[in-house]
Amino acid sequence: MSTATPALIPFDDRDGVIWLDGKLTPWRDAKVHVLTHALHYASAVFEGERAYSGAVFKSREHSERLKRSAEILDFEIPYTAEEIDRAKADTLNANKLTDGYVRPIAWRGSEMMGVSAKHNKIHLAVATWAWPSYFSPELRAKGIRLCMAQYRRPAPDTAPTASKAAGLYMICTISKHQAERQGFQDAMMLDYRGQIAEATGANVFFVIDGEIHTPKPDCFLDGITRRTVIDIARARQLKVIERAIMPEEMAKASECFLTGTAAEITPVGEIDKYKFTPGKITQTLWDDFQSLVRKPA
């Protein structure tokens, strides 16, 4: 007897097309073999992007980061950033999407099976789909709830932390599952030193005495949305401080929010025993962000 949720549409059984290795392919035919190196050894990098009003927000920055991530994992994507940008635009157009999520992913293929895979073909795919706001308006109004994650972000000398590599998200999936089982929406991860790092898929900011504080991204991804929000805040003459933040310092914060492609700017109401109230600074940044991403080209 199936236990699948009736409303859930599996991602391998949808209408539309996916850009795969240079051409638009029927969605259900965009497949890889079970002995693909990336499936066994996590030799894959990806991006999460959003299209607003028909244009991918900061598409070139994402394409360039995708290529840098691949280089960190010791492979080269056989397409230029410009070609990747075009693939994203073509896929959005083919799927008749103006607002939606964009997922480019590059990976090692199945020519060699083992840790060493120097001669494996490098594949690239781009998928797009409709994806509304990550959290409901009601939840955003009061702020989402986070617990503390079991796992910590690794040190940069133990993992390729500057890349958006698939393997780095294994502990995020575990941590988010544990959080959801306990009734939370997400989990806050510390880094290898015990400092605040990020949520499972979004960067974090705290408002303390009217100033915005955020961890330095020296062992986790410096998000493109994160950098955008910092620019917006500074344009508003708000002081932004990037620094090491210890967990107990959350007691000083009045507001807290997450940033990311999926999260956009999401207010936080609770992290473990610490409480926050979504306030003016968070709302101002949200309003400015929405104006920016929907600004006519």
Helices and strands in order, then pairings?
Elements: E1 17-20, E2 23-26, H1 37-41, E3 44-46, E4 49-52, E5 55-56, H2 59-72, H3 81-94, E6 100-108, E7 122-129, H4 137-142, E8 144-148, H5 170-181, E9 186-190, E10 196-199, E11 203-208, E12 211-215, H6 224-235, E13 240-243, E14 255-260, E15 264-271, E16 274-275, H7 280-293
Helix pairs in contact: 2-3
Q: Any overview of this molecule?
A:
With 297 residues, the chain is α+β, with helices and mostly antiparallel strands. The protein has 2 domains: 17-129, 2-Layer Sandwich (D-amino Acid Aminotransferase, Chain A, domain 1); 137-293, D-amino Acid Aminotransferase, subunit A, domain 2 (D-amino Acid Aminotransferase, Chain A, domain 2), CATH 3.20.10.10. The protein contains 7 helices and 16 strands. It has helices spanning 37-41, 59-72, 81-94, 137-142, 170-181, 224-235, 280-293; strands at 17-20, 23-26, 44-46, 49-52, 55-56, 100-108, 122-129, 144-148, 186-190, 196-199, 203-208, 211-215, 240-243, 255-260, 264-271, 274-275. The strands form 2 sheets. Strands 8, 9, 10, 11, 12, 13, 14, 15 and 16 form a 9-stranded mixed β-sheet that branches. Strands 1, 2, 3, 4, 5, 6 and 7 form a 7-stranded antiparallel β-sheet that branches.
Put the structure in a nutshell:
The chain has helices at 37-41, 59-72, 81-94, 137-142, 170-181, 224-235, 280-293, and strands spanning 17-20, 23-26, 44-46, 49-52, 55-56, 100-108, 122-129, 144-148, 186-190, 196-199, 203-208, 211-215, 240-243, 255-260, 264-271, 274-275. With 297 residues, it is of the alpha+beta class.
